[in-house]
Predict the 3D structure of the following.
Amino acid sequence: MALDLTNYLIDLLTAKESVGVESADVSVDSSIILVINAVSDWANEKAGFGIRARALTEYRDGNGRQIMFTRAPIESSAVVSTSVWIDADWAWGTDTLVESSDILIDTVNGAINLNVSTFDEGRQNVKITYTGGYATIPARVQQAALIMIKRLMETRTASSASNTGGSMSAEADAVAPAWVLDVLEGLRRST
């Protein structure tokens, strides 16, 4: 079992420490990794987006105004790496690529505006590539993930069940304290 590097919210050593396992003890690594992956997937689902930063491509309808990112937060690194094409023919060539100096990113509200024009109205005629999510997982989210990892590890030990990641989502729902759900719901509201 490998750690899902796209989604993980907590690294293996931190998780092992939180459940009282020595870092040198590899006997339970696969079980802990399974739980880390399940908790990370569950948290992403509850938040409504991939929490960890990742490269994204979106196709949006041009609306003549601004375009809102669907994944937030948009960190300063995304401003550097955001590309926008406006192309009714969907060819997405260099001739339809918007000059980077003409792209204005509103990181607070998660919006893209154009400096010298507007987004041509059309269906799926705007392509955006950017980085969405957190480059550094917020401390409150890490703490919530650690609590969930600990609770699920205790549940697994108590029941001696060999749960798969998919069935752990229901377990996570059952053992999640209200404040963990509040943290993840807060991420959803801030996007």
